[in-house]
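Why does this matter for the project? Reviewers at the last site visit asked to see concrete outputs rather than summary tables. In response, this paragraph embeds two records directly. Each consists of the residue sequence and, immediately after it, the corresponding structure tokens. Nothing has been edited or filtered.
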Amino acid sequence: MLNRLAETLMKCTVAERALQQAKATLYVLELSLSEFERLVARHSLILADSR
């Protein structure tokens, strides 16, 4: 049982690292956009998330 717990914790850690990397990549991509493009992209993400 302890092994399963450790395995689950490791998977969560890997997933969290992947999420942090994705957020960092998104941040860098956002820096390359103009302010208007950033607003449009965020609005699109909000709409997609609400579906």
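We now turn to the second protein, recorded in exactly the same manner.
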Amino acid sequence: MSARGFAVPLALLLLLALTGLAHGALLMARSEEGASRLAATLLARELAVRGTLLAVARSGDTLPLVAVGSRALLAAPEGTAPSAVPLRLHLERLAPELHLLSGEVVGFEASSAGLLVWTLDPAWRAAMSDGGGTIVGGEAAYGGVGGSGPAARDGCEALEAVQTPGAPTGVLAATEPPGLGLLVADSLLARAAIHVSGVVSPGPGADPWTCPSSDPLNWGAPSDPGHPCAGRRPFAAADGDLVVDGGEGQGVLAVAGDLVLRGALYHGLVLVGGGVTLEAGARVHGRIISAGRVAADPASAVEADPCAVYLALADAGALRAPLLLPEGPWLRPL
């Protein structure tokens, strides 16, 4: 056979080989395109889950209370989840003040994400008040100190379930007053709905039949259980020094500087970045946490009252809004 006779079959074989390679390359390209589209879809779904979780964590709303170690379904706030992507969200309470927010796309569990958040627990925080009426960073000097405070009142059943001497396990106290838990002072003060300064005399007002919630000096009526403001426990803050000259109030009071209570009555939690002075018969039922010196004259007193602390924190929804914690590739929902 001549050389030309061999060349024709060889050319045909070469063309077939090239055609096969082209088809193989096309199949690989289509496969890679499909994989890329799948990866993009999974990423988009994971971003949708993560975006919804961030919206939940940053909404300012408090998280539902579930038992430690338990996991429950969590409803996304209206407008936070993409309507075209069906999501399933979970809330798992890892410790009294530590939660895992997780979620996935229904039917595509691989598209999942998780966020670790800290939330203040009123019952466990109040249980820390069982050991006394004050925690101070400086010198404490008392002219009069009360006893264990009033008996437990209605609404404090959750406190009774966790009340233990000392600091409960899982409750973090990592900041200086007026910070609380993982809320540093500036963040805590910024969450207050009421800001005051100078000299104030709080009270529920002159009308015994109404409770004006718009009044920044209406801090409730702890001395009168029958008053319309008996259940009002606002979160008030002062960015500098504060003098409470007479009057009464209840709730959470955070002061960045020094605090003077002069003949005033207060029920709840008092957080002070400076020192505290109680004079002229001032009384605090609850707890004072101060970075400085706490002093009381013989007519004044601080009475430990965990129930008052619990009720104050339970009503302070702004303090119980989630705080996002640092995350990394190690954090994946189970």
